[in-house]
Structures are given as structure tokens and as C-alpha cells.
Amino acid sequence: HWGFTIGGRKYRVPRDFQHPGGRELMDRHDGTDIGYLFRGTAEEGRSTRSSHVHSGAARRLLEKFAVVPKQTERGTREQGEEDRGGPCKLDAAGAGRVQVVNGVAVDLDRPLVLQVGALLDSYQVWVHKPELGKPRFFQSEVLEQLSKTKWWVVPFVWLPVSLWLALVSYRRLRRDPGHGAEGHLLLTDTAAMASCYLFGVLFWSVVEYAVHRFMFHVSTSSYWPNTLHFLFHGCHHKFPMDDMRLVMPPAGALPIVLLVYIVERYLLGFGAIFAPITLAGTLTGYVCYDMLHYHCHFSEFVKAYAFLRWVRRSHMDHHYRDNTSGFGISSPAWDLVLGTQRKEGKGARGTACK
Predict the structure, then answer these.
(1) How far apart are the C-alpha atoms of 331 and 324, rounded to whole Å?
(2) Model confidence at 79, in pLDDT bands (50, 70, 90)?
């Protein structure tokens, strides 16, 4: 275990716990008072690089590892838990297993997907209160396994698809009577293909922002919309350290890929020849995004680079502090343009990130 204190209160965190800051960060603070990490002021002599201010949601999760859980007149409860989300019944170890939200019970020990829709108007508050663990989604073992995806599946599936799409454009261009010479591409044709591919890579930032903000963060309040939201993105906000449900399964990403192809071919006018290689660039951007996203949650190498540390801070704030900002991960451009960039030093905002 790692041991920490806040004031006189003691915490024991298992060594297999996956903190976004990595094991080195946990080792550095082992045996120390970490209260300053939750108060917003760094102790004298501490590096500002290691004094990221944690949110109320992070403190609430830390309470699950308290040596002696706090008691209140309403029973055993987690530090900093908001009443508006409803009381949580806790087991003897202090970990919430049955959560009662406005009279609706959600049992974390049972398959979750068909439970969460019943939360109705309370769903958005509940889903944006992060929890630890890797819950079961479905009773069916087949569906359960299909809902899980290893990080390496994304490049394994989509990079070959990108290469195939580039070849499709190449072959169509060679066969087109208006291009090429004796079956060979002209320099202008090669430049056009390269430009389309580069445009596709850059266009991914638009797709990423639009899908994340307007599809994945749409507000739902009825049974089936809640259920679908949880399947596609809500589960990641509720259980942000579930590594098997962080990247999108290829079957779930396919409808979005097809929609992007339609936009690039017909609305943006790339046509039958250049749309495939443009989509190849967009898929390359998607793979880079998902790898960066995964490493924001689970890898320690991001600490070596200032930009990647900033990306991780911004994304962790999106999860634990303010789910209404920081929609771009691979690029902050559209957050800056549309005014949804992370606000440094601001308190928790959003549906229920406190």
C-alpha cells in the first residue's frame, strides 16, 4: 500500500491502483501529508510540476481508501459527496455498491447498462460523479466481451483500413482519364493526394471536437437515450480508469467513420477519387488521438514532455473538475476558437464533477 495523510486522517491506497499521474507520483508522496494537493496551494519548496490541484471528485474517490471512514448522522458517507446526487448506501469497507439516486437504486455489482436508463433526469448528475473500478455491463458473456476493447485494437484495425483507402484513391486516380499519363501519376496528382491526406489528418480535430461535445456530451433524461449515452461515453466518465472501455470498439466507431466519409465525399466535395485518401488521413488522426487519450489515463511517458503534461492536465480536469470544457484532446484549437478551453484555477463546474 501507499500511505498518505490529510491532517490527521490516514489513507491506504493499494499498489495496483492506477493513478493518472503514474506510480512515480504516488511513490514521491508516499508517507506524506497531501492536503496541499486538495487545498490549491503548494507547500514551500514543492515543485509546481508536481502540485496539480485535485478536485472535489478526486477527494471523494480518495475517501474510499480512508483507514477509518467518516461518519455522519445520515450514516457512512464519502467525503465531499453532494446531496443532490442522492445518498449512496455503502458496504462495510466504505466502497459504494448500491447507489440510490432520487429513489432509483443502481447496484454496481450487477450489470449496469440496463439499470442506468431508469435514472431519468438524475442520470447526468450520477454519470459525472467518477467512481473507481471496472463494472460489468451485460449479463450475457458474449455482449460483455464485445463491450471491451484493448488499446492496441484501434491501430491494429484502422491503420490497415487507412492504407487500403489510400490504395483505393491511387487506383481510381490511375484509371481516371483526366489524370495520369500512361498509367503513371503526374506530380500534380501526387501532390493532390498528399494534400487530401494532410487535410484529412487536420480534419480529425473538427470531427473529434464535434463528436465529443455535441454527441457524447448531449444531455439526456429518458431511458433509452440515457442507456445509449452510457454505452458510448457516459461509462468512461463514470469509470475513467476502466482501461478496457476507454477506446471505442471498431463496431461502435464504424457508423461515425461512414458518416465522416459521406461528409468528405459529398459535402466537402472530394468526390469518389479523393474522398478515400482524405478519410485515410482522418482515420490516422483518429488513431493518434485514441493513443494519446489512452496514455493520458494510463501512461507515465507523458510526464517527460511539457505539452503532453498540459494535455493530460486538461483532460483530467475535463473528467474530475469541469465536463463542460476541454473537448479537444489531440488539439486545443477548437476549444480556443469556440471558448470551451480549460480555465486555469477555476473551481469545479459542469453537471456533477464536484
Answers:
(1) 16
(2) very low
Comparing C-alpha atoms, which of 317, 321, 346, 320 is closest to residue 329? 317
Q: What is the bridge-based pairing of β-strands 88-90 and 96-101?
A: antiparallel
pLDDT tens string 93-110: 334 578 888 889 999 999
**Cα dihedral 92→95→96→97 (10° resolution):** -80
Cβ contacts of 154 within 8 Å, gap of 6 or more: 247, 248, 250, 286, 287, 290, 291
Residue 301 pLDDT > 90: no
Could you list the beta-strand ranges (E) of the chain: 2-6, 9-13, 71-72, 75-76, 88-90, 96-101, 104-107
Are 136 and 143 contacting, i.e. CB atoms less than 8 angstroms apart?
no
Euclidean distance between CA atoms 89 and 258, whole angstroms: 44
**DSSP readout, 112-173?**
-HHHHGGGGGGHHHHHTS---S-----SSHHHHHHT---TTHHHHHHHHHHHHHHHHHHHHH
Query: Do you know the residue count of the chain?
Result: 354
Give 54's contacts (C-beta < 8 A, 6+ positions apart): 37, 38, 320
- pLDDT tens column, 167-225: 999 999 888 766 655 555 666 888 899 999 999 999 999 999 999 999 999 999 999 99
